[in-house]
Amino acid sequence: MKFLNITILAFLLLGCDFLEKLPDDMKNDVTVWTSREETESFLYNIYAPIPSPALNTGYGFMGISDEIDFTWNVYPSYNINLGNWNPNSNFQNHWSTFYKAIRASLIFENNVDRNFELSEELIRQYKAESKFLRGYYYWLLIRQYGPVPLIKEERPVSADWNIPRAPFDEIVDYIVTLMDEAQNDLPARWNNTDQNWLGKPDQMVCKAVKAAVLTTAASPQWNGNSDYAGFTNKDGTPLAETTYDVKKWERAVEANREAINFAESSAVNVRLYKNNENGKGETFSPFKSVRQVHLDGWNPEIIWGKSNYSPAGWSVHGSPGPNNLGGIAPTQRIVDAFLMNNGKWISSPESNYIEEGFAESGGEFYKPKNLDEIDDRVEIIEAIKSEDAWGHWPGEWNMYANREPRFYASILYNKRIIPQLPRDVQKRDYYSSPNQQNGYGRVEFYYGGASRKSGSFTFFPRTGYLVLKNISFQSNMRDRIYADANRTLIFIRYANVLLDYIESLNEIDPSHPDIEKYWNAIRERAGVPNIYDVYPEIKGNKDVQREHILRERQIELAFEESFDRYYTMKRRLLAGTEDDGSPYRQYGDGGKMWGMNINAGDPTTNNFEYEGFYERVPFETRVFDKKMYLFPIPQSEIDRNSALVQNPGW
What we know:
This protein has about 650 residues and is mostly helical. The chain is built from 23 helices and eight strands. Among the domains are: about 65-85 and about 310-485 and about 595-625, no CATH class; about 205-230 and about 245-310 and about 485-560, Serine Threonine Protein Phosphatase 5, Tetratricopeptide repeat.
């Protein structure tokens, strides 16, 4: 898209040094504020620090959540999970870059009126974009660090920059104000007006960010958390409110409802994505719907994102060896979290879940019913790659049988046919041991298997699983040919807003009909029964419903760039849940993390039917201290700003 191409180009040409030059020497440069091109470049570089996922930083916060293990110890997430980090580690250190962009936004708004090549309407729009970006960067800062210094006005370089942290709620209010002000001069939706500017904020984006901020502010971490009783500035100013206030939840409900009402209005086109509404003449498929929402361009569920995201790194690191670096490994906890196809947890007595043994029959959609598994391999592979065939096959472990569509859309488990391989059966056999080469290409994670070999050029997941979500089945990862070399990177989608809404509403009115309405909208799209048809006894029970809503979040938003699981466990104060020794526990970022027994296998026979692999074993014991609910402020910033206090425990 035009906007994002310009953004990337400007950032590549000018680089981070551009933001280094934003003080008074550039502010007074006549060229910047009299040339439309220069002024717009200044604005585009305020966009530039918006983080994009990168494997060399442990894919953001995903690798330190309880849903993912990164195999490689060269990434920072490895040491963080072992507790080997401190304020000098600089993992995910965006502090300085975000503050440069914040200051740049203030400079921009104070000077853009000088440009007579811009219309008054365009100046108002650009100011609104700048306000949004300032609020968004503050949002990213407080999610990670908690209270931060709040700079609302442009300050000269000669000013005193020893600025103390502002109370958390004050920053929240400021972000909300910026979102409210910004949306006044932005269109309802860019895709309804000028699609060349998709990726810029609009009214829908502002409302969604505001709702997310207020949902976090209402959550236990920032609403009545007694652990922050002594969290103050040097002058004694409290930085966190330790008294519970139900009005914070009411405010979150109001903001989320406003976003939903706006999404449902005629002014915008925001809704849950379904594959039969994509203009391709398809019939509804929950499997295709939950997969393609991440792969199908600027579809109606994407509230905010950016174009030109390359999935190459994710695809290579998430696809199995040989010839890939397969090590983005879901934990057993997230595997266990996915529902059965009857909508129940695997722990429910009537779920029909079977822990051991091999399935005698395949799932309903595992292949087109008129095709033979031996004689019609090419047609079956084509059906798998086109996402018309999915589900467990006969002979796969019962643990993976009869699960919900989101499970099969997200998890590559042992013996499953690898979708992202070429149609060529000989190339598929490259991923199979000699006695199992049948043209399908089934992943072998057990000891001695084709995807379990060690060495300088192959890797394997320590949990016995790899991600499938966000990897196109149409890609050819044998030859590293990507079906979607550029796609939309999603920052916020509509399901995020719906889940925030029902979670917030449950805290103040657990019997409200909107909980059932929007919860079941998500489940219906995912192909699982309505929540109260499955668990009628939970209706109106705030505490029990909360557990089920958090499980729904865990499943629906797994492995996404919003890093929802990491931040939900923090704001809900569940990351510190003690390890009780059970491989089935639901919460806690510390203690034993579990997967399959990848060191079990028989390398002499290379046999899928080796049952020892399918045993829960801990692959890592992680460290989580209470201080880790917040990141430490980088020591370099503490040294630079004498008014800063470090986060508790650091």
